[in-house]
Give the backbone structure.
Amino acid sequence: MKFYVCIKQVPDVNAPLQIKEGELIQDANRNILNAYDASAVEEALVLKEAHGGEIEVVLIGPDKASETIRKALAMGADSGSHILTEGSEEFDSFSYAKILAEFFKDKEYQYIFCGKQSQDTDSGLTGSMLAEFLDLPYATNAVGLQLEGENLIVKRQGDTGQEMIELPAPSLVTCSNDMNDPRIPSLKGIMQSKRKPVNTIAVSDLKNGLTNGSIKTSVVGYEEKPKREPGKKYEGEPDEIAKEVAQLLDSAENVI
Amino acid sequence: MDEKFDCIIVGAGVAGLAAAMTLARNNMKFLLIEKGEFPGSKNVSGGVLWGSDLAKLVPNYWEEDAGWDRFINHRRLTFMDDQSTFSVDFKSSHFNQTPYTGVVVLRSKFDRWLAEKVEEAIAESDYAMDSFIATNILVEEVLMEDGKAVGIRTGEEKFYADSVIIAEGVNNLLTRQVGLQDSYVPADHMLTGIKEIIRFDQNVLEDRFQLNGRSGMSNEFVGFATDGVEGGGFLYTNKDTLSLGLVLGLKDLREKGKKPYDILNTFKKHPVISDMIQGGEVVEYSAHIVSSGDKRVMPKKLHTHGLVVCGEAANLLMNAGKAIQGMDYAMRSGILAAETIVENKKTDDFSESAMKKYQNRLDDSYVMKDINNFQDAVHLLHDPVMTQKIPNLICDFGRNFFSIKNEPTKKAREMMSDSIKEHASYWELLKLGVKGGKAL
Amino acid sequence: MSNLLTYISVNDGKIKRSSLEVLSRCNEIAEKNGKTSSAIVISDDCSTIVENLKSYGPSVIYTIEDPIFKNHLNTPLLKALTLAMSEINPDVMAFASTEGSKDILGALAANRNAAALADVSEFDWTGDAVTAKRPVMASKIISSVETKGSPVILTVRSGSYDTVEKSGESKVQSIPFTFDKNELKLTLKEIISATGDKVDLSEAETVIAAGRGVKDEEGRKLIDELAAVLNAGIGASRALTESGDYDPSLQIGQTGKVVSPQLYIAVGISGAIQHVAGMANSKVIVAINKDPDAPIFEIADYGLVGDLYKILPPFIDELKKIKG
Ligand SMILES: Cc1cc2nc3c(=O)[nH]c(=O)nc-3n(C[C@H](O)[C@H](O)[C@H](O)COP(=O)(O)OP(=O)(O)OC[C@H]3O[C@@H](n4cnc5c(N)ncnc54)[C@H](O)[C@@H]3O)c2cc1C
Ligand SMILES: Cc1cc2nc3c(=O)[nH]c(=O)nc-3n(C[C@H](O)[C@H](O)[C@H](O)COP(=O)(O)OP(=O)(O)OC[C@H]3O[C@@H](n4cnc5c(N)ncnc54)[C@H](O)[C@@H]3O)c2cc1C
Ligand SMILES: Nc1ncnc2c1ncn2[C@@H]1O[C@H](COP(=O)(O)O)[C@@H](O)[C@H]1O
């Protein structure tokens, strides 16, 4: 059984950010494994531990992103493919999915796992785009996964409830971080990760699928979200402050 | 994987990274373990890295845009009362030459960058595949066998090495675990450092502080800054932010019932400081313990069989008024620790006496020489007269001296003596003068 | 030719308010630029929906009706939308941002070779490119985006626009559709309905959100009581959906739902950026937390510092009094 997990390196949204001349600048240049992808890796590991198989992670990104591949390998993935970008291109989900589709064209696999969205852009597009390009059955926003034979039983989070869906292999699933707590690599894991094979592929070798029109959306600027003015803090006797605020919600805000 | 390392380093702060770089350059097989998510993630402080050891570790680092923020060519020591400041100010193009003698760094950036440089050095070494920097791992124990350090334990996992370098920083639990320091260190010798990072438009910052290219300023404060609590204040110019903060004696804080954050806020409202930080936006706040640099709290020994302690884990720090020196001591001691281990590896001797060579190297270096020579100055700085009376007196004098009124002006000497009468006794000053003279 | 097409999301036979917000915005853009704005309903039973939709005046109401649409399943929905887009040929296809639309957005865009924008908080179209704003970096930053080519498919955050009724004749046109069970590449095994009550969080005027500070049955009872007094929807932070205390569909934040009610009361929630990402656009924010330094207070209009177990009972009592 072969699991592929598509992982992305994203800027750490917890690090201080600023906008300089329309560019988004992250002071410390801190990048991490997309949290949703970490959950996807974790899920593959759990399934592999129970049912056997092999896990390969795939990442499109610059040279520096190899540390993110190592992170996934340290968690326990078996190997990695690094689709190396030169750093000048600005890909969107559509073009990432096209490149990935080209990568997967001649691969054999039962399962492709993606994160449900990128933590930085919250797009949530690449997974189902890839499924469509590869003509795979898919489920998004998975919060639970099981294997029955080769079929995946996916619990996905819908608007009001959850749906249990059965997918025949090969299939694609996008994972929510609500499905597990990704393991923190052990020291042994970190040490082993250095010796695991990582195959580097130039993105230009996979650009077959990319046409002129493949980059369909572009960011033209950033602005800081207008800050909310912090309001008033009420400290003191619970009875009194509770009363006071309740009355203000009525008289001053008219929201009750 | 039961392989054995030449060395395991605990802590990827300045000391641990300097040790690691030295080991990598000398083709040693080692493991550097950091509990933070990445090197620097736990190191909120930052400040000025004094001296030129960085150039030894990363030659021509100044050609890189990364890691460091500015070099210092402008220094200022400011005495303050509640309304005024009186500064000694020194700026010189002397300091514009490389290797710089002081660079401002933000640790979350600097440590990470230095770690990348260490990774590069590992990749070029004979142990490219066998030496590691591992983050997000907490070392829980140094493994001791017959009084000899043989490795470390993290969770259920044990790893073995010929030698261990403890570079765990001021909260030195492992140093205590192996018995080099008493498990209880009284709070009188500890300070708390608090700091804000305040962001500006880079041009505004450069104009305001007369910065040119990558030149920068460091400013220390004595007096009103700490609201009567032992300690001092500091301000450093980073690329487009200011680091503004205080170091405050823990015991004194407790006795006076004051909160660091409140003191910082009062400091920021001082008319002179508020002019400096006007228009900036606080983007980070952090607090960290820092040792006082008092020799009395240093571990009894900095080595034992198979093990050495460096950086602030060994209490190597000095704050004698003109600057906080912790990172440069950490860096040098890390280098010396690693050099000792490289040498010992040649004879495969990691015995107590072989490890003692680290202590000797350290004693011969400027680190211990300065710490020994300036102990009195350290104590002087903790004298309440120094944190309150002197700054008040100096500011009072300054106010008189620089005021021009339409009435007869007193001679400076008279003004001085008026100020002294108001703020301190001659006797106190005399005592301090004698102490100070000896100390410096 | 139809230029803008809005997909009408339906929940329990009722039109979701968020899709009317989108339709209203499309109507506005169409009017401004001399384009047309239409709507499409895909359901197992379209008739009442179509009737209700008429007061929002789309030029054409397209319908695709089939029993398969009783439950959400991506394969048939995707087929229906692909068909609709090829027949109607819209330049802009707009959805309310729901788990249902997010499920097919990427695949539909891939199929139609379309530009896709998820979760926009503002958008405009002049006949050329679509320009839009999207919150990014856990909603700390707003990015301005632009599309190339046509068509463009987008989803819009709930609460981004007001609903505006509009008079005018709506033509109704049904699109013939068949779906063979064999085309269904996947099977729906079971639907686990939310246990919480049915107030749709994204439409609620008032939301009470519980966090880790709400530790036990007693705490949850207080939340229920408060919600009952204010006729509010109940949401939760990840801490409590993860622990199983609240249904996962009630999670508010980056992973969960985005809400923008008139009143948001955060009870025992620290205010992690990933949570705030889902509620920062609420009109009035009240926070109850015993930690005076909790980040939630940085965005709260009314910050009550104290133990929720001590504050909620008198708070509820007072509200009851006010409510009469
Ligand atoms: C507010 C403030 C301002 C300062 N300003 C200056 C200044 O301007 N100039 C200056 O030179 N010095 C300054 N200092 C002092 C300086 O920061 C320290 O002396 C210096 O960081 C010490 O370096 P170190 O490598 O020994 O320890 P640290 O930098 O503290 O590094 C220790 C590392 O070990 C890790 N660690 C600890 N225990 C374990 C474990 N068990 N397992 C794994 N990892 C572990 C920690 O996470 C940490 O990363 C300042 C300090 C403060 C608090
Ligand atoms: C990629 C990613 C996505 C995420 N998405 C989401 C999301 O969609 N939604 C979400 O909520 N989180 C999300 N999180 C998790 C988020 O980071 C926080 O961990 C989570 O929001 C914390 O929930 P909390 O505030 O309830 O718990 P805590 O952070 O534990 O806070 C509990 C608070 O309750 C207070 N408290 C305790 N007892 C009392 C009492 N008796 N009275 C009053 N106050 C009390 C405490 O002071 C504390 O501030 C995400 C995280 C990641 C990495
Ligand atoms: N550069 C990339 N390399 C590998 N996988 C990616 C990349 N970009 C997106 N993905 C996958 O697509 C998911 C997110 O899609 P999106 O939110 O559209 O960016 C991620 O969680 C990954 O699984």
Summary: Residues 2 and 89 of chain C are 7 Å apart (CA to CA).
